[in-house]
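Example 9 (inverse folding). The structure is encoded as follows.
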């Protein structure tokens, strides 16, 4: 098992239980005590957990919102695979919305690199997504930035963003989330971001959620919408079987993409005009 995969599993357990013990991780992962401690140290360096004697605890629980860079490092290969699968739901001539998030940012990069998806209008409250889609020499791509107040995850939220979205209608909204589960639905630690995301969902004919397996069981402070409000949920196939069954019972359609066996980066995703 790759270090990144082990760290993803450790983080998922921390988020699910609130805390983990080194001894339990050594047994479940079948690795040495030193390996587990190195993995926890790396997660702590990225601000995702707090190291304590004998284990690790959740860095912030329901109200904690990691920064964009910290979230980008988690399950990076899985997120890219999910973004590529989500790209199939983008149609030429349509209007779509992209929420803030690291997976939607990767989807924005893929859209920028695919000139056949023109004309296309993209509404977003994500500063990184808007930057990825800023192609002055591509007149077929129209980008609408909602405006609003910036969060640690580089989302634009609040009354300005919400009012902008309320006046728009798009074909598909692609939503990244802090966490999802059967009871809590889709959640986020940020109250204003939840309100803005709900406005984005309301503006769309259908909603496609892009979320890797580490988001399962993570519950943020505020609910966005229920799983029943989701037309398609795209995840990697490391999602536990019982979780997949629960999601299938709730959403319109669950797409599970193969879990990458090697670390990959979106280096091959180059916006048009920058190759």
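The amino acid assigned to each position is listed next.
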């Amino acid at each position: 098992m790759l270090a990144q995969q082990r760290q993803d599993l450790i983080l998922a357990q921390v988020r699910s239980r609130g805390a983990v013990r080194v001894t339990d991780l050594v047994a479940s992962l079948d690795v040495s005590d030193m390996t587990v401690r190195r993995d926890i140290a790396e997660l702590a360096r990225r601000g995702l957990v707090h190291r304590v004697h004998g284990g690790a605890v959740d860095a912030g629980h329901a109200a904690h919102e990691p920064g964009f860079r910290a979230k980008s490092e988690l399950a990076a290969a899985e997120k890219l695979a999910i973004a590529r699968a989500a790209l199939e739901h983008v149609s030429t001539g349509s209007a779509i919305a992209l929420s803030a998030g690291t997976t939607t940012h990767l989807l924005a990069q893929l859209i920028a690199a695919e000139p056949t998806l023109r004309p296309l209008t993209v509404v977003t409250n994500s500063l990184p997504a808007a930057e990825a889609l800023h192609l002055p020499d591509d007149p077929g791509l129209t980008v609408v930035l909602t405006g609003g107040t910036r969060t640690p995850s580089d989302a634009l939220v609040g009354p300005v963003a919400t009012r902008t979205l309320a006046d728009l209608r798009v074909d598909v909204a692609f939503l990244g989330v802090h966490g999802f589960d059967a009871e809590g639905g889709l959640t986020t630690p940020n109250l204003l971001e939840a309100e803005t995301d709900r406005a984005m969902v309301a503006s769309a004919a259908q909603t496609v959620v892009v979320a890797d397996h580490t988001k399962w069981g993570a519950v943020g402070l505020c609910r966005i919408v229920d799983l029943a409000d989701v037309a398609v949920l795209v995840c990697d196939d490391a999602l536990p079987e019982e979780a997949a069954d629960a999601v299938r019972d709730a959403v319109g359609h669950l797409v599970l993409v193969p879990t990458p066996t090697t670390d990959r980066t979106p280096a091959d995703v180059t916006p048009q005009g920058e190759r």
